[in-house]
Amino acid sequence: MAPYFSEMFAALNKLKERAEKFLNEKNFVTDCLSKIEEWTGIKKRYLAIGATSLTGLYLVYGYGASLMCNLIGFVYPAYYSIKAIESEDKEDDTKWLTYWVVYGIFSLGEFFSDIFLYWFPFYYVCKCLFLLWCMAPVTWNGSQVLYRRVVRPIFLRHEATVDNMVSDISDKAMSAAENVTREGTSVDNDEDDDHLKRQ
Question: 20 to 30 A Cα–Cα from 45, which one of 20, 79, 108, 157?
Fold first, then answer.
C-alpha cells in the first residue's frame, strides 16, 4: 500500500510542477491571469485555484454542466492529440489514441444511460473527474488502466468475429453500391433511348 501512496504523491507533485510551469508560460490564459493579477493584486496561482473551484461548483449547480464537462473532456485532449500527431514521437500518439478509444466507449455507454445518470446530483462532477483521470499525465491514468484491463482483453477475445462482420458488411455495401450504380446507368441509358426514339 505504501508504494501506491508514494506514487500518488509523486504524481500530485508532478501535477503541481506542471501547473506552476503552465502558469509561468506565455499564452492566452496566463496573459489574462497576469492582467487580473495586476488589477487585483491576487497571485496567478490563487486565481487559477479560484477558477478551478468555480468550475467545480458550476459542474455541481450550474446550468449547462453537461456542455462544460464535455468541453473539459474534449478540448484539452484534442489539442494534445494534434500536437502528438505533429510530433516525431509515436508514444504520445498511442497515449492519446488510447484516450479516444476509452472516451468513445464511455460516450456510447453514456448515451444509453444518460437519462438515468442525469438525475444523480454529482454526476457531472464525477464524469469530469473520470475524464480528468483518463487524461492525467501519469502512467496509471484511467485510459491506460481501462484499456489494459477491460477494453484490450475484450477486443482480443472478439477480434476475429468483429473482423469477419466488418468484412461481410463491407462486401455487402460494395455490392449494393455497384447494383445501384448499374441500375442508375441502366435507367439513364433507357431514358436516352426513349428520347432518341421520340426525335
Answer: 79
Q: What's the gap between Cα 17 and its chain centre?
A: 24
Per-residue pLDDT tens over the stretch 138-158: 778 889 999 999 999 999 999
In order, the DSSP letters of the chain are -HHHHHHHHHHHHHHHHHHHHHHHS-SHHHHHHHHHHHHH---HHHHHHHHHHHHHHHHHH-TTHHHHHHHHHHHHHHHHHHHHHHSS-SHHHHHHHHHHHHHHHHHHHHHHHHHHHTTSTTHHHHHHHHHHHHH-SSTT-HHHHHIIIIIHHHHHHHHHHHHHHHHHHHHHHHHHHHHHHHHHHHHHHHHHHHHHHH-
Distance CA(156)–CA(164), nearest Å, equals 14
- Please state, in angstroms and rounded to a whole number, the distance separating the CA atoms of residues 69 and 127: 7
pTM of the model: 0.64
Residue 151 makes CB contacts below 8 A (sequence gap 6+) with 101, 102, 105
- Measured CA to CA, the distance from residue 127 to residue 113 in angstroms comes to 13
